[in-house]
Amino acid sequence: MPSIAVWNCADEELPRADNEMQSLESCRSSEVDVVVAGHALEWDGLGGFIASFKPTIFHFIGHGTPRGELVINEGRSNVARSIASVLEVVRAASPALEGVYLSGCHTSVPGPEPLEFLAPTSGWVVGTSDAVEDDVATMFTQKFYNHLFTPDADVREAFRVAKAYVEADLGDATPHSMWMALSSMPPVDSMAQAVFTSLRGVFDRGAMQVSMRNEFSFAELDHALQDMSHALGTGQVLSRVNRAPIEPASFPAEWLYEPRIADFVSKARAGISAVRRNLDVVRQGAGDQDRVFGNVLNFDGSASPAEWMRRVNKIDAARNRIVKAANELLAGSGAPPLRKIPPSFTEQAIERAARSGR
Length: 358
Hints:
Blueprint: E1 3-8, H1 17-25, E2 33-37, H2 43-53, E3 57-61, E4 69-74, E5 77-82, H3 83-93, E6 99-103, E7 123-128, H4 134-148, H5 155-170, E8 176-181, H6 188-203, H7 218-234, H8 259-286, H9 305-330, H10 347-356
Parallel strand pairs: 1-2, 1-3, 3-6, 6-7
Antiparallel strand pairs: 4-5, 7-8
Helix pairs in contact: 1-4, 2-3, 4-5, 7-8, 8-9, 9-10
């Protein structure tokens, strides 16, 4: 779903900025999310604001300088910072960023360079090559987004429509410019298949197939979690022998920023974190033993046998969260789904242990 984060750094010299913000907020619907930050947001808080929302579009309102800088709120004063430095923070906080709209003077002076800070998913940047009147900037924004979010519209078409409206209604050529970078990635389904094939080497091991009760090693599971985290962060599938990247099995890290895959990565990471938390608890109970023996025969008395069984089952359940996330990504791709890990202990076994104390 498209989402717009708006940072309004305009001052009293831009009285139409409030109208521009209102036009952006009017885009909010069940299909488009919009969050606006005004003068209360300063430079130091920009990363946190963007990270909390993870927008696909970043919209700046304010002044630009002839050197290609943005005048932003920084403490009690306004400071000119390079467009690249601002977008670097925004992209770091929202890796799936696709579009940037810089509503101010001279904001396209750097040319296409800001495209380097966008995810490789048909990124675009709109700016101005010269000074721009306040009313022109406001009207261009309104027409651009109104058309962008109509059915079957695209960014290039929205830009042309906005330019045509402004020049027809106001009688002057606008200084607005647009740069686009066509995606270098394969179609999403193909990419998902490629990512799955690459990660299969990480998943295709006992750590993601065998229940904990089947004498599975805690240390091996820990190593597998490290490999999975590394692959989800870098695209590199590591050799289990020498820890070096397996190049044919790896994939470009940029693919992880594609929204659908990024959603899978987020869910998988949450599952890995849950496995680690539960594994730490079970490891402490098992003492110097590296696995589960029988009906938790090797666990200490800090909890009942039934409780230890439940805790062991939590590791299986947390790993199944990762399996579920992978299978959701692959739905309809034709790739075989991963098998669900059976729980180490059935409810009946846990109930018997609770009744007998063993």
